[in-house]
Amino acid sequence: MNPKGLYTRRDWLVAAVAAGLTARQLALGAETAAKLPPAKLAMPGLWPGRVVAVTHPGCRTDGQFRAEPIAAVMRRGMMELTGAPDDTQAWRTLFERGDVVGIKVNPVGGPHVISSPEVLHEIVRGLEAAGVRRRDIVVYDRYRRQFLQWGFDKWLPDGVRWTWAVEDHDNTQQKIDGYDPAHYMDMAVTLPGQNPEDEKARRSYAARFITQDVGKLINLPVLKHHQSAGVTLALKNLSHGLVNNVARSHSSRSLNVCGAFIPAVVSMPIIRNKTVLHILDGIRGVYHGGPYARPQFIWDHQTMYFASDPVALDHVGWKEIEQRRKLAGLKPIVEAPPDEFSTFVHGQPEHIEIAGALGLGVFAERRIRLRTVRLGA
Hints:
By secondary structure, the chain is α/β, with parallel strands linked by helices. Helix content is about 30%, strand content about 20%. Strands 1, 4, 5, 6, 9, 10, 11, 12, 13 and 14 form a ten-stranded mixed beta sheet that branches. A two-stranded antiparallel ribbon has the order 2-3. Helix 3 packs across helix 5 (about 115-130), helix 10 (about 260-265) crosses helix 13 (about 350-355) and helix 12 (about 310-325) packs antiparallel against helix 13 (about 350-355). It is globular and about 55 Å long. It starts with 8 loop residues before the first helix and ends with a strand.
């Protein structure tokens, strides 16, 4: 409730969850997936509320990413998150030989702010140290053409596989080739003009990549503002990358339900149970006009974030973006009026708080344990 005693959109959604509405009641779905037992490593994972931020000023210098500082950041981040005495033991906390591990990358801000080769190579190295074979590592993004456009296939280590759900973006996004009809989120919102009685218009199906191809998932988002979702960090990298029919969540500048859509998708058991680690690449960040990365809104943040809890991680990342917006003289995301670079009436970063209310992680700032480590100073 706001200071005037009036309920906002966010207040209503959070109150609905607190009153006992489950993800299925907010957005019916995942009927067969709901039969899966909770996984030990399921979100919020082994370390609810814990976020590790590791900064190194040498991660990106003279316009180039630097492998050695990034490797140092990755090793320290995993040790701090897990409490392990060394890097190898840190990775073995979550992974072992026989695991088939997916890595969800993010190419949307290309070419300026996307998942970087240096970070991905360190993840592969860490998985190998834990005993995972290269042929059991699968790098994924939803669109094959976008994956190839930014050269992900060219810098994958030899032996690492890659896959996709569909060839390219389309306006309706309801093709189910590459998706699993047994796992879906059913929500009472469709693209304008479509029949709400049509199951394909009302449902988002999970990619076969997550339902059939891998047993565990590493989520590798980047640090960006987003016009409709407010921010696009760990939660949105999953919700809009692992299912189809996502355009209905933000089909116009005012028809925007990202606040509820994102938590509902991530609550699907097949996604929640398999996503065991989130590594937010914040070496570069975008503070306005996202999800695209226009050069005037990019800054070198030189920080990587590590968590098993996507809600706590996203709350921390949201604050970092807001701090940068303040330095640039911009209003907070929820108060900012539309402009030529961010056209939506309201961004909805409240999806993070709603995800917390659904049990996906810790949102309350007093319960988030943020550890910041500075290297190379």
